[in-house]
Design a protein that fits this description.
Blueprint (H helix, E strand, L loop, with lengths): L6 H16 L14 H14 L24
Length: 74
C-alpha cells in the first residue's frame, strides 16, 4: 500500500512541530502563538497542500444532529 503523505509533506509537518516546540509557530490571520500539537500538524499539512504535495483531502466535519423536543402542552 502506498504511503498517505509524501516525504516533503512530512518535512513540512516536522518543521511546524519544531517551530511549535521553539514557541515561534503562529497561526494564520490573528498571528497568535500556536500551543496545540494538533493545530501545529494541521498547519504543516495545509502548507504542504498549498505547495502541491501529496496529502489526503481534508475530512468533512460531522454535524451534530439536533434532537427534536416535544412541545409543551398547555
Amino acid at each position: 500500500m502506498a504511503p498517505k503523505y509524501s516525504r516533503k509533506a512530512s518535512a513540512k509537518v516536522d518543521r511546524a512541530m519544531k517551530q511549535l516546540k521553539a514557541g515561534t509557530l503562529k497561526s494564520g490571520r490573528s498571528g497568535r502563538k500556536v500551543k496545540s500539537r494538533k493545530q501545529a500538524i494541521a498547519i504543516g499539512l495545509s502548507e504542504a497542500r498549498a505547495a502541491g504535495q501529496k496529502v489526503p483531502k481534508k475530512t468533512a466535519k460531522k454535524r451534530k444532529t439536533v434532537k427534536k423536543r416535544g412541545r409543551k402542552s398547555g
